[in-house]
Amino acid sequence: MGICLEVWGDYALFTRPEMKAERVSYDMMTPSAARGLVESIFWHPGLSWIIDRIHVCKPLQFTNLRRNEVKATVSARTAKTVMERGSGSLYLATSEEIQQRAALLLQDVHYVIEAHFVLTDRAAPTDNPGKFQDIVKRRIHRGQCYHAPYFGCREFPAHFQWCQELPPCPPELQGQRDLGWMLWDMDYSDPQEIRPLFFRAVLQDGVLTVPTRDSGEVRG
Q: Does residue 22 belong to any structural domain of this protein?
């Protein structure tokens, strides 16, 4: 049971985790970002989405942008101290904590996501693949979502529709292109130690084939 979802937008930022101060985007959408986008349209505890392929339908274009960000966070330790003392501030004044950071974004992005789902042990006895397939198709065709889908950051919204026909591969992306190590997804098997997983991303004629978790290509 799968879907073919066409998504596009003006900007995208799929942040590389190795970059610390400034945000730098991967060359294209990551599998974890694609999964999050699909889940924004339809999520259910009884199913788990698996990304199969991501088609890049437009040439890779980068642009620079300076963004206002808040440099501080309210930590659990601060909250505990305020609770014990009975006084203190549990808010951030953005005018005092704001700072500008440069970001290297993707511009004018267009992808097609091929994905399928599998049932989990949290599925109810009345849940079945056909039921979920009908629901997700109906939601995509109607433009329904639980929250607005986005490309990496919430300020970069994504438009979506059911893909009727795969767009042709841009001439610039024909052939093979090695994109290096890319974030596959986060490993939540141990809630006390959530680990990132990576794989070697290779774009073949504009198509990124995503390996499965047990393929041997995904590494922690």
A: yes
Angstrom distance (rounded) from CA 198 to CA 181: 6
pLDDT confidence bin for 85, thresholds 50/70/90: confident
**133-139: Cβ within 8 A, 24+ apart:** 133/1, 135/42, 136/3, 136/41, 136/42, 137/3, 137/162, 139/41, 139/42
Identify any residues that bridge with 208 across adjacent strands, giving them in sequence order: 54, 203
Tell me the pLDDT tens digit for each residue of 19-60.
877 899 999 999 999 999 999 999 999 999 999 999 999 999
Task: Please name the residue that has the structure tokens 């003392």.
Answer: 85
User: Rounded to whole angstroms, how far apart are CA atoms 170 and 200?
Assistant: 22
- Give pTM, 2 decimals: 0.87
Q: Which residues pair with 107 in a beta bridge?
A: 11
Question: Which residue do the tokens 């889908």 mark?
Answer: 149
CA dihedral (20, 22, 28, 30) positive or negative: positive
Q: What are phi and psi of 36, to 5 degrees?
A: -60, -35
Q: Is residue 184 part of a domain?
A: yes
CATH of the domain at 56: 3.30.70.2660
Domain that holds residue 144: 2-67+105-209
Q: How many domains does the chain have?
A: 1
Query: Does 83 reside within a domain?
Result: no
